[in-house]
Design brief:
Length: 551
Amino acid sequence: MDILGNVFLWMCYTSLGASLVAILLVAMKKGVHKAISWRMHHLLWFIVLARLMIPVLPESSFSLFTWISWASTSMSVEQPLSFSAEPLLQTNTQSPALISDLSPGSEHNENTPIQTEVVKDEGITERSSHPAYIQITAVLWLIGVVILLARLFIYLYNMHTKERFLMRVTDERVTTIMNACREKFGVKRQMPVYTGTLAKGPLISGILSPWVYCPRDVYQSLSDAELYHVFAHELAHHKRKDLLWSFLGSLALAIHWMNPLVWLWIRKMKADMELACDEYVLEILGEKEAIPYGMTLLSFARQISEKRPMSYPLYFHHSHHINQMKRRIQMISTFKKGSAKLSAVAIACGLVISAVTLTNAAEPSTLRMPVKQDEKLRPLFEETPVKGTNRLEKAEKLAGFPFKVPSYLPPEVTYQNTNIYRFEESEPSDNGVIHYFRGPDTRFKIVTSTVESTQESLQVRTEDGSIISTLSAEEDLSANGKTVKVIKRKTPSGDGSVDQDSLYFWSDEGLFYSIEGDSPLENEEIVKVIESSQAPNEELRKRYVNYDLLN
């Protein structure tokens, strides 16, 4: 059920992204309606189709969604718009607090609400992380997908079955016209023509093994020139791979059927396909054939009735609807063969539009605040670009530098989450990663920093800056030849009691590590944890995931 919920959420995010792209393209198509060819009009729909069908797209700073993210950030820094597939948790930074005071048991860490930009998490498989309404809606969505896919493939099967009961046309006149048409369009494979009672008008079928259907009364009533135009139109569909694109459009519709706009866009895409096909025919036949080709359409339209339309998921029969026929005749009557220069410009524009719309937003840049010289070693979270995540794999990407994590954890102790903070404007740059852990009787954090902690930075202060804690050095520990410094910190609380926590410090490969906790572990356990530290591998990445954090 959780996998279904994740797939459903992917569909929602993908559909939303495609909707934004489609709205942009529709507005652009209206603005440059007469400046670009109908083939380019149709090609632009492939961008929407790609956004609907491709599960993972690359990230780019030039993406449309990066610009949207920047715009939304300028209006509200706390709620950037992102289409990342990974969950990104961002800690609330409204109240200042010392980094050294942010243990897993502190009030700030426990009660601070965590924002999720995207709740989808591909790694969640062990328990449900979606509300009941998401799971119910996902089931309804899946039922709709199954019904529409079944309808599509039943249609394809029926077409394949009916092909065996059709009669192959052996009329020398028909085969001669078809062969002449194949030669004109550069189609090397044989294109058999069948007749029967399959439909009222000609059509092309078979994605892998195409064939043309033409009713007997149609090819007998049309002149040679008119029949040549009919076959030219069907072969143009074959050359342009329209059957394949129409099939993919039907698949996209089946997957995104809950979005009503997708129904409209797929229909418009297939309507533009007919105009693009007519344009391609005229480019092959030449401008002199525009008027005869248009007359063939009018003559043929009179023979086709819309009273009993055939159910056709890969439909072309809607091309004879009165409104669509008007568009086709208007395009044909004004057809002018485009120049190579304009075609090159259109292709270049199409590539630019694809680069902007077929990419996701790059990792949103963090808000950088200047760090005062006297506060470099005592940064406040409100001034710190902080990101949080419930996955070690995501923490590695956000940190920007390699670090180690323990492969051993005490019994019943589990990983909670990771915070990443970066000070790019401080000198030296103080970047760090904090992993939080919790057990029944203990809570602690492991801090990795690029700058060594100082005595000053470990002190607990009041709001006016007064030091209220006392530090005392304990006997050093040894772990795999590393010296682990131990410091006891005592801090008076408001009720008159004294809070005591243990701090452990060591360095490894140029980074500085520490373990801090309000319910410390025994020294033996601390040594085991430190000795097991290693660079993350696939096993640790699977272990360091907190499924509960998204609930």
